Amino acid sequence: MDMSPSTIRPKLTARGVNVFYDDAHALKQVDLDIRAHEVTALIGPSGCGKSTFLRCLNRMNDLIDICRVDGDIRLDGEDIYDPAVDLVYLRARIGMVFQKPNPFPKSIHDNVAYGPKIHGLARSRAEMDEIVASSLERAGLWEEVKDRLDAPATGLSGGQQQRLCIARAIAVRPEVILMDEPCSSLDPIATARIEALMDELKQNFTIVIVTHSMQQAARVSQRTAFFHLGDLVEVGDTDTVFTQPVDPRTESYISGRIG
Amino acid sequence: MTDPRQSPTETILASLPRRRRAEARFHFYGIAAIGIALAFLILLIGAIGHQGIGAFSQTEIALDVTLDESVLDPSGTRDPETLSTANYRAVVRAALGEIFPDAVRKRRDRRKLTALVSVGAGFELREQVLENPGLIGRTMRVWAPADDEVDMLFKGVTARDSGRFTEKQLGWLDRLEAEDRIRSAFNWRFFSNGDSREPELAGILGAMSGSFFALMTCLVLSFPLGVMAAIYLEEFAPRNRWTDLVEININNLAAVPSIVFGLLGLAAFLGFMGMARSAPLVGGMVLALMTLPTIIIVTRASLGAVPPSIREAAIGLGASRMQAMLHHTLPLATPGIMTGTIIGMARALGELAPLIMIGMVAFIVDVPQGPLDPASALPVQVYIWADSPERAFAEKTAAAIIVLLAFLVVMNLTAVILRRRFERRW
């Protein structure tokens, strides 16, 4: 296993995380480290809390009135639930790609340019065009859209839209990218493209992906965390989790008996 | 009861005719409902159109008037003061006298003859002379408006033997007609005059201006306030007992009868704040109170109809809540907000009750020049004319309704067009 310094010190650490929706206890005492420049997959049956955990990492749960988060989550050692934390800055560092492609009903260019624009990352029009082009290129979409950057983003296919959303997220140059089942509404070809993309992106970004597909977790991730009914059951190297699971629940899920 | 030995297929087959009949009945009820509604609509528009169409034409009498300097401006100074107070009625009378030299000998006949021409003939001459004093001393042919009774006679509303005219008067009118001195012209006075006691001079411009100023006040107040309140409630307000209470009250306010808002306006704006009576400004403020809940509700519904994924996308990129709202949610909700606002405005345009309470129901001749001048409004004008005894006001009433309906149709069409133009799909 790679023991370079970046993998030793975790990018994100979660300690004793509990999440409640009103009275429902959605996530129980979760401790999890996420290492830099790796893809960490969160798997588990529906309703197990994996998406909830993901949304704790960039505080998207703050948008839900009834949601309460306890515990300690740190990004590079800083508590992200500290009242002094600026959510705008936090979410600029931790980007997100959603389950359903959700491009803005604007042009392709404007979709990618939106993040850099609100954060003031481009000082000139040329610089902005450069950011847009390089983000689209890294998302593997440039060749398909370079001649119609002014076309509406909603006219793209589902797979293209999702890659556009990835381009939009990386245009802000975040440190971490959270992906919430990014391929669940895509066909196998589009899925394969996005998986290949994740493999490339992990050199520059830390990626956390929620997925329902165990094959996908096995293909793209270096580490896998298995959630069940709000508990983090098991976490480890993907190969180990899939071949020699420690917990019987993990074993049953992987072999298809629960979930 | 179904036979337990029957297979499900047979049971379903047996039930099909009944279901098909129910379907057909339902279909028929729907068509019948639409048919009845359409029939009433056609009846309404037909009746109003039939009655009101007459108001758009006016019987006019040709007079060869001599603008005699000795009558209008004996001193010859062309002083506007003198010109505006001069006796133009005498000029009109003289012109009539030239056509009927016998009639003007007797005082009674002279009065009967002059009564055939509207007093407006003199006013119109005055306008012309004030605009161009060089006309004095010249003789020219003018088409003077006929009196409303004459107008009704030529439009066929009153009969010759109705007792409204003497034999002599009928004879004069016949001669005028024979000499081609009577015509029916487009009634531009209806669109350029304020209200008047004389039906043939009464116009709708004053009411239209009053409605315009009131609606502008209403829009300027209720639109920004309503949208701001809706944005706060939808996006930023916490969900707790207080916001629930506010929400319930807004919904209740939307259902409060408009006359109650009129009473509130009377107490608050006129009584407490001491603002002017009959002013479109106050009318607009009362209408704004009435429209505000509607705009808040419509705006919240439009904001809520924007898919949350768009907002999440913006927030996930690090946009603040305000940026997500201003850059994404609000633009997408705009067509809905505009449609709702226009429909709210259309409702306010047709509102009479609150205006009664703040004194906008008044006989006001001058066309208001600003939101502080006393004014009436379109529905008020309909109400006043409908209440007037002269027969000619009946067609004016219908014509005012036509104008009001035309504005409503234009506003609602605008709403539909805006919706079509700006609606975006995602």
Q: Can you tell me about this structure?
A:
The complex is a heterodimer of chains A (259) and B (426). In chain A, 37% of the residues lie in helices and 26% in strands. Chain A is of the alpha/beta class and 259 residues long. Chain A has a single domain (5-254), classed as Rossmann fold (3-Layer(aba) Sandwich), CATH 3.40.50. In chain A, helix 4 (108-119) crosses helix 5, helix 4 (108-119) runs parallel beside helix 7 and helix 5 packs across helix 7 (158-170). Chain A is globular and about 55 Å long. With 426 residues, chain B is mainly alpha-helical. Chain B has a three-stranded antiparallel beta sheet. In chain B, helix 11 (241-254) crosses helix 13 and helix 17 packs antiparallel against helix 18. Chain B starts with 7 loop residues before the first helix and ends with a helix. The mean pLDDT of chain B is 90. At the A-B interface, helix 3, helix 4 and helix 7 of A face helix 14 and helix 15 of B.
N to C succession of SSEs of chain B? HEHHHHHEHHEHHHHHHHHHH
Classify the secondary structure makeup of chain A into a structural class: alpha/beta
| Largest beta-sheet characterization of chain A | 6 strands, mixed
Query: What percent of the residues of chain A sit in helical stretches (DSSP H or I)?
Result: 25-40%
Low-confidence stretches of chain B: none
The Cα radius of gyration of chain A reads 18 Å
Q: Oligomer, anyone?
A: heterodimer
Number of strands of chain B: 3
- Which residue ranges of chain A are poorly predicted, with pLDDT under 50 across at least 5 consecutive positions? 1-7
Query: Could you state the CATH homologous superfamily of chain A?
Result: P-loop containing nucleotide triphosphate hydrolases
How many strands of chain A? 10
CATH structural class of chain A: Alpha Beta
- Going by CATH, the architecture of the largest domain in chain B would be Orthogonal Bundle
- CATH topology (level 3) name of chain A: Rossmann fold
Which CATH architecture of chain A?
3-Layer(aba) Sandwich
Helical stretch tally of chain A? 11
Number of domains of chain B: 2
How big a fraction of the residues of chain B is strand? 5-15%
